[in-house]
Amino acid sequence: MIGVASGVAATVGALNPSPEVLAQMSAAMAMGGTIGLTVAKRIEISDLPQLVAAFHSLVGLAAVLTCIAEYMIEYPHLDVHPSASVLKTVAYLGTYIGGVTFSGSLVAYGKLQGLLNSAPLLLPGRHYLNGGLLAASVGGMGLFMLDPSYTTGMACLLGVSGLSSIMGVTLTAAIGGADMPVVITVLNSYSGWALCAEGFLLDNNLMTIVGALIGSSGAILSYIMCVAMNRSLPNVILGGFGTSSTGGGKPMEIVGTHTEVGIDQAIEMIKEANSVIITPGWGLCAAKAQYPIADMVKMLNEQGKKVRFGIHPVAGRMPGQLNVLLAEAGVPYDVVLEMDEINEDFPETDLALVIGANDTVNSAAQEDPNSIIAGMPVLEVWKAKQVIVMKRTLGVGYAAVDNPIFYKPNTSMLLGDAKKTCDALQGKIREMYYTH
């Protein structure tokens, strides 16, 4: 907020607008601010990824419109402009990046909101299609730079905005729901570079700097998250499957039977445990069960039990989503640990409580070299003395890989709706410790 406010103030000061223009700018900012505030106030914390994706699309659209408008304004002066080639290059690249960001963010929003199928849409020959779109965009840039006519320039900019928008759809549609956290960070990076192009064209140093910061930080975060999944960034962006460690053989067949427990049995296991690690996943977000879990943790801590959270880097639908959810519910920061900080503690832990997580706790990543998630760093919950897995069903996660921990002898399955189950656990614990 401070950065945006500073940017607006600096822009207004640099432009030194007339009263009429200032009134128009104020009206536009008031309208946009009102819409943004209204939307943000109505959004649940669990729906933040959709909000971020929607706002990214607006950044992309703004970049496209700004680049085209700036070309229209500057065209009469290009013959005498000392850096006309640079201006045209930035305008074209900004339009291209903005188009990919705009349509890609809309597809991401549709997948996250449930308007589109979260499964990857693998079009036949999609790599050739994307390659053709990229080649056409590069060819259009060559024509844009060489032909000085206004008609050709506008045709090239409008053409690349259409080509890049199609490419944004084909790229994002091919990415499955499990990779949405990386998609969000990549789109964040794209929006930063689009903003950087806008700042350059508008001769606004602050906007250029902020865009570069967003673009570079988004790229770094995307790389970090890909490392956390043992995947390469091109593999994710191009809708690939499997990790860099996946073998070529048949995945291991899981045999055995699972053990189911009820609320009362789960309460007894929690009562007997002195140390508990909770590993939440998207199921916790979807069920909005953070409040009963936070209250349950508070009560257990008051009884002298050591209760902590283990968060996987790609848990949820965007980076840090689970951290935000838990903070909103009042969970202390010092008991929320990252995967690398807590993994070595599982062997000494009495009970691991898995809530709505699957792929991020899947032991096949370590036990099956032919699994498509082989080599992916996961939370090693199965190494705890006892494990309770809370899920709706025994079904697979987004990666569509069976989870061997469901069938391990130290695992108990507590099946059902996460919100109802967490509410029941909270009530039973309160009754056990605080009702006399």
UniProtKB/TrEMBL annotation:
Alphabetized UniProt keyword annotations: Cell inner membrane, Cell membrane, Membrane, NAD, NADP, Translocase, Transmembrane, Transmembrane helix
NADP transhydrogenase beta-like domain mapped to chain residues: 1-426
Described function: The transhydrogenation between NADH and NADP is coupled to respiration and ATP hydrolysis and functions as a proton pump across the membrane.
EC main group: translocase
Protein name (Swiss-Prot/TrEMBL): NAD(P) transhydrogenase subunit beta
Family as reported in the entry's similarity comment: Belongs to the PNT beta subunit family.
Matching InterPro entries: DHS-like_NAD/FAD-binding_dom, NADH_DH_b, PNTB-like
One Gene Ontology MF term: NADP binding
Catalytic reaction annotation: NAD(+) + NADPH + H(+)(in) = NADH + NADP(+) + H(+)(out)
SUPFAM superfamilies named in the record: DHS-like NAD/FAD-binding domain
Record-level GO cellular component terms: mitochondrial inner membrane; plasma membrane
GO biological process: NADPH regeneration
Pfam families tied to this protein: PNTB
Topology relative to the membrane: Multi-pass membrane protein
Claim: Ubl conjugation is one of the keywords in the record: no
EC number, UniProt record: 7.1.1.1
Positions of transmembrane segments: 52-73, 93-116, 128-146, 152-175, 182-202, 208-228
Localization in the cell: Cell inner membrane
PANTHER family hit by this protein: NAD(P) TRANSHYDROGENASE, PROTON-TRANSLOCATING NAD(P)(+) TRANSHYDROGENASE
Record keyword Cell membrane present: yes
